[in-house]
Design goal:
- Four copies of one chain form a homotetramer.
- Chain A is α+β, with helices and mostly antiparallel strands.
- Chain A has helices at 38-48, 108-115, 131-147, 184-199, 227-236, 257-260, 326-347, 353-360; strands spanning 5-6, 11-16, 22-28, 65-67, 71-72, 75-76, 81-86, 151-159, 162-163, 206-213, 241-246, 264-265, 268-269, 277-278, 281-282, 287-293, 303-306, 312-315.
- The first copy, chain A, has a single domain (5-360), classed as Chorismate synthase AroC (Chorismate synthase, AroC fold, 4-Layer Sandwich).
- Chain A has eight helices and 18 strands.
- In chain A, the strands form six sheets. A five-stranded antiparallel β-sheet of chain A has the order 1-2-3-7-4. In chain A, strands 9-8-10-16-11 form a five-stranded antiparallel β-sheet.
- In chain A, a hairpin with a 2-residue loop joins strand 5 (71-72) and strand 6 (75-76).
- The termini of chain A are far apart.
- Chains in contact: A-B, A-C, A-D, B-C, B-D, C-D.
- The interface between A and B is large, with 110 and 109 residues.
């Protein structure tokens, strides 16, 4: 099992290595009738593309999405949607050296332990390019969310300890700064911090927040398939994620029950400490979660490690690496959240017998 | 889908409501040949049983595990292991009132939205009694972990902001205090805080930490089925969990790459900021994660809410409720972690063709 | 993996051995709001119960179904429905001998090869009692089928070469004879043949036919999850099934295209050689399939085999055994078909985006 | 759900329509270390390619397999193997007409019912080209089977009632005649029959038999995931399959128990009526099954049907169509069987705790 399949009904299967022929995704189980074009997908891919700012790698990867199947006359047909992005800008030579040793903070060692060997070029399957399949699949999922009126977006909440101020929140700002923060002032300070990281041959981490609005109440399942548990798995499956919390999250562990409970009132809830999910099921208010992202493990500073022969050595990782993963991961978080909600929409349709009956009424044989 | 099935190969299916005839679990896919008795399971169940201390409800539930199938001559047979615990101490009358309104912080409202109605007695399926099936299943999983030499345990790291001091860590202490802390001093202070919560008709939350030792390197899968993503989903599926982090977790988001990277050395890693998992795959060092638990939502203090007719009302929740969920949830966290690792052991056996070949060598027809 | 879980959304998990404490099933994913009582389930179980006629074993098993969870105020709640039947009439002594050797036509040898040992009492998990969980689960599924207007029934088409005459088909007759044939004359001749089998210490096989009416067009999926492929797996998972065919089945392999094609006409199709499924998807006409059942492997006549030490021996199987499995398997076939269709109804609800949108319209937060 | 994902651990996801950009498959969960090249896959694809004889369509499809990921230095890496075959020879114009009506025996009508519309060009997703993904995936699975010593092959047993004589069985003959029969005489007679079908603008069906040798005893699971049930689903998921039987199959329904039981003897079984599977688990003898294939539904003869407006019309299907599907389906049957056995090998590794322990012994942290 290599675990590259995600979802129960709305299901994606991704493939591809950093330095192979390309990367891609097949979306199976997407309902028929959703408008979809390569442009729809490209808009999403462009947000994770490198070379967008000085804080992302300067590789010129065109990352053009090509739809290979599952769309006919501009709409999804209900059959598998295969999407491919060709790899065009790899320089395998850059990576030949890392074949022989284990980079700290990377999966080189664990791949060798699991599989006996690894495609070491650019990280192979554990490269950040793996997320292209997720984002392309997420773009398809967004089409379904849009069809039922759900609004989903994420942004950088914090970089290297610099937080976006909720009081200055501006949704428009998110796409207007290089770090995707909803607060231009914080974004400017984060930019300075990243400049410093580059000078110091070091890297920073941060926190991404995601908001999902207009979710129908009743999505998600009690017990193991709680909507928050599914979101946790989805988001934690993104490389570099080390923490996940919903609503007040870890802060709730320090609150009293009288503070943390959200009282119901006419029209909803007075507060939203819970982050839109109660008992694993959406309550109709905004779903809010955060993911903690570790600092980029590839740094130019000298590090100690061992090689495949077990000898201790010193290394300095060359090549083009982002001083921070967070901004490019924002759209990946959105994609994983969209995929999770899309699947919950489809798996949860039959929770009441009346809805099942209605869905099949009139599906008789009348030619 | 009610989502009460967990795992791919080592799979459990739980059932039961607070005030039905009982609760239980069926474990499917457990390897044959593992010693298992009702006593093995009971030891685990006793740790989540109410009435153990003044901080847990005083209901006298005997919670006796009965193995109904899948064990023959003291060993698992490889076929489904059904375990049942009868409900014996319900007083449905206590709960009749809550049929008509939505308790803050509970799943009453969301169940109604999802299913159209609910079994309101004692929370029905969203009751804490639901975790009995998890714990019984986890006890079976622990038998498999033990067979491959894995050591797994959890404890209360923090209650209401009072933290166990890592410098005073004592594994023996965990089972010697009412709040399952590995630090007797912190435990005493936490006990005082809980007394105060009771007096104030309020409740507290906290943090549980889990350590998994001697995990073979190479467990877990890249991409979606990362071992940490699976643990995140498993732990987040426990009611009241609002946050999850591995290794340094959220703190990693504020560290520099040079601090957060774990350098490899002869025999392993110099540090363990990663918490034992790199790229979703175990690296052989200790797996460490934490879960944030919200304060008990059932409090006696007056709260505002609405009833099923949408009228705003004031309520005060009666009955016997814990001022804190954390201590009883410790064994539930252990159970979910054990189930996750057990499943990873079985799904990951075929990662190298040599291991597959060896497993089937000699499985010929020789009668 | 012991493979005792069936279905994707409407999912059952069965457990239990012939001589353990009982057998049972947990149904997860059944929609809320379906009327369900123990009587509903008992009616189905009574049709597979032994001791009904001289052609079924004379063991007096009461086989009383007990619903343990998931039903509240007479309706399914959407959460797991656990059903148990206690074992009451086992005499383990009868079976002690078979621990040491491999019965021809049974799974004794293969269980030993797979698991290293087996619960040999009464066949353990491979006993016919395993089907009780299927039938109880199938009874729940029938409630969902009924809710959408589907009519599903099966009968004995053939025993030991004696066929029910389609020209004499009577649905009422099915439950009026000991072999569940829709043709009383054929039933009488089959009864004679079975008498002869008993005298000769031998057994007979046969064919079961199942008809599913008023299935909405559009159920099932192209490619791997074709509705007929799902039915094939479901029915072939019943012990003793050796063949499965849909519509004209094997006869279609000898027909010409011009004969086998069903021409469409106003209101449907002129013929139904296809058996109601085209390209894996229901076409709205009757779904018709047949299963071939092998003769009961337990016969009193002397047979040769080997014991666990590999020595060749002669055996004569004692105890109470049916001369034919077919009649008691009819309701098991119905159950597996009902479970398959129920799951197809739930997994297929989201095939069009319009249906998804409609299902969630009005699921807003309005308290 | 469009159901284009197959398998639990060794899992494939296929995509592609007849007249889209291509067709393909992603294999996830294949163990690392299996030699694999495009040539390995091409050999399999070439056997289902059209234009091989006058009984297959004369379209010149090159059907060249391209491996896009998951293979490094000539061996599988354990990560997803994506394989694509570009569509090169479509003439959409041929099919424009069929957009408006429902071809008898095809899935046109049922696709419209399920999805609301369809990609009508060349059958879209229900085209025979869909099987390319299966065959490419099956070629990968064969690498795993080979690694554990399993030999799997299929052939045409019967076409239009003309049977290959078991007494004249020659494995070499299979690839030496246009209909893949193991009996050259029968093949010659089948060829004559197909000539006649062409002259009569009609088509024929047939039966494919598959043999799997050297399967380890103990593969497959009791209850729902029986190895024969899995094979049934796999093979029945191939378009045009209408029947499936294992061992004696339907003939077993007419045999007596004393005839049908296979007596065990030193070294195995005296006979193999069961077809190598007992209680759903392989017994180490040859696994043998047969699939009934319906006649090609596309025939040039005039047929009656209705159009999308419900009007009754007469049609004659133009274009290039095989008078028989059977020969090209032989390799598809092999592929589906190989995929099923590969998955059973991986899901079944953990049936005994000793095997689990051994697989992880030495997987410690020793750098």
């Amino acid at each position: 099992m290599s675990g590259s399949v995600f979802g129960t009904i709305f299901q994606i299967s991704t493939w591809g290595e950093s330095h192979g022929k390309g990367v891609g995704v097949t979306v199976d189980g997407c309902p028929a009738g959703i408008p979809l074009s390569e442009t729809d997908i490209q808009q999403w891919l462009d947000r994770r593309k490198p070379g967008q700012s000085k804080f992302t790698t300067q590789r010129k990867e065109s990352d053009q999405a090509e739809i290979l199947s599952g769309v006919f006359e501009g709409k999804t047909t209900g059959t598998p949607i295969a999407i491919m992005v060709k790899n065009t800008n790899q320089r395998s030579g850059d990576y030949a050296e890392i074949a022989s040793y284990y980079r700290p903070g990377h999966a080189d060692y664990t791949f060798d332990q699991k599989y006996g060997f690894r495609d070491y070029r650019g990280g192979g399957r554990s490269s950040g390019r793996e997320t292209i399949g997720r984002v392309a699949g997420g773009a398809v999922a967004m089409g379904l969310l849009k069809a039922v009126g759900i609004d989903l977006f994420a942004y950088t909440k914090e970089i290297g300890g610099i937080r976006a101020d909720p009081g200055k929140f501006s949704r428009e700002a998110i796409l207007e700064n290089a770090v995707y923060m909803p607060d231009m002032d914080a974004a400017a300070r984060a930019a300075e911090l990243l400049e410093q990281c580059i000078r110091e041959q070091d890297s920073a981490g941060g926190i991404i927040e995601c908001v999902i609005r207009h979710v129908p109440a009743g999505l998600g399942d009690p017990v193991f398939d709680k909507l928050d548990a599914k979101l946790a798995a989805a988001v934690f499956s993104i490389g570099a994620v080390k923490g996940f919390e919903v609503g007040d999250g870890f802060a709730a562990a320090r609150a009293r029950g009288s503070e943390n409970n959200d009282c119901f009132c006419k029209g909803g809830k007075k507060t939203n400490h819970a982050g839109g999910i109660l008992g694993g099921i959406s309550d109709g208010s905004d779903i809010i979660f955060r993911a903690a992202i570790k600092p980029t493990p590839s740094i130019s500073a000298v590090q100690e490690t061992v090689n495949r022969d077990g000898e201790e050595i010193s290394i300095s990782i060359k090549g083009r690496h982002d001083p921070v993963i967070v901004p490019r991961a924002v759209v990946v978080v959105e994609a994983m959240a969209a995929l999770t909600v899309a699947d919950a929409l489809l798996t949860g349709m039959g929770s009441r017998v009346d809805t099942v009956r209605e869905a099949y009424t009139g599906r008789s044989v009348s030619i």
